[in-house]
Specification:
Strand 4, helix 5 and strand 5 form a beta-alpha-beta unit. With 316 residues, this protein is an alpha/beta fold. The two termini are 32 Å apart. The structure holds beta-D-ribofuranose and calcium ion.
Length: 316
């Protein structure tokens, strides 16, 4: 049975790897992209989403532009990590297909209420769109099959402040709303994604297939690799969002624990810090599953194999 998914995304270099992995995976049916501010503006991210879909021959998939600002915090984009366009050194042609006229929040509400229990949401950007949809129409909460969300740093150090991960730090109030909404929720934090480092050798293997897809992967990840090398002394790049996508159909890649998880929204040094109540000290019931262990090389092999297959289907 295929899993029907909508990706809520801020593409974004690793977001585009998640989108390509979805298109390369027969276990999932990608039924829409909703775009949020984050790595770049929502307008730029929408152009990127459409262009990546067209690159892979999937320009028919609907894309809806969503929120351009966090709920409370000022805007924080990430050109130093993802480049001015959000896609590193890659330069994709403008897509022929326009975005939907419908706002992403309305698209989410409409799809979820039309087919309750059908959609897994893979949220790989700040959670603004989803929090807004929950506040605007709380009836969507029981209609969501589950949310798989890349975000947070539980035991791991932050990648945006010493304590906080980017997606949560950018809109911690949105994360707070979604975490406490009661929606079935799986968190994919830096604790697991930071083991998933795509290497230059992996990209070299992909480039053996003559296709615009690996050339895009090369051009976009090269920027990300330069960033990781210069700032974190990591050889390669961490494809956070693609791991969250893979967990839709390959949960065996990670070890999960159920915990009560919260996020600091009080401000100060730990603003946006996610934490788990490992010793059950709050007495609060678990509100999510958290991925805390990963078979990283298995995931990377799966990713490379699938992108190779997708590339063979898009020759050129
Ligand atoms: C997350 O933040 C963004 O930079 C990436 O796209 C990913 O979703 C990692 O912290
Ligand atoms: Ca992202």
């Amino acid at each position: 049975m295929t899993e029907r998914i909508i990706i809520d995304t801020d593409p974004g270099i690793d977001d585009s790897m998640a989108i390509l992995l979805a298109l390369a995976s027969p276990e999932v049916s990608l039924e829409g992209l909703t775009v949020v501010h984050g790595n770049c503006t929502a307008a730029q991210g929408t152009r990127n989403a459409l262009a990546v879909l067209e690159l892979a021959g999937a320009g028919n998939i609907p894309v809806a532009k969503g929120c351009d600002l966090p709920l409370v915090q000022p805007s924080l984009l990430a050109p130093e990590t993802h480049g001015d366009t959000g896609l590193g050194y890659a330069r994709l042609p403008e897509a022929a297909q326009p975005p939907l006229r419908q706002h992403a929040v309305d698209f989410l509400i409409e799809r979820l209420l039309a087919e309750p229990g059908e959609y897994t949401l893979v949220a790989v950007g700040p959670l603004t769109n989803l929090a807004m949809a929950i506040r605007r129409e709380p009836k969507i909460i029981p209609a969501i099959k589950r949310v798989i969300s890349m975000g947070g740093a539980i035991r791991h150090q932050g990648n945006t402040t010493p304590l906080a991960e980017f997606n949560v730090y950018v809109d911690p109030h949105a994360a707070h709303i979604v975490y406490h909404s009661g929606v079935p929720f799986t968190l994919v934090p830096l604790d697991v994604t930071y083991h998933c480092i795509l290497t230059r050798a992996d990209v070299g293997r992909l480039l053996k297939v003559p296709s615009p897809v690996p050339r895009f992967v090369h051009d976009t990840t090269r920027f990300y690799m330069d960033f990781h090398d210069a700032n974190q002394k990591i050889d390669g790049c961490v494809i956070n969002d693609a791991l969250a996508l893979a967990l839709v159909f390959a949960p065996q890649l990670c070890d999960f624990e159920e915990h009560y998880v919260d996020v600091d929204i009080q401000g100060g040094v730990s603003m946006g810090k996610t934490f788990a109540d490992f010793y059950r000290m709050t007495g609060k019931p678990a509100n999510m599953k958290v991925a805390l262990g990963v078979r990283a090389r298995d995931f990377l092999d799966l990713f490379v194999e699938r992108i190779e297959n997708l590339s063979r289907a898009v020759p050129g």
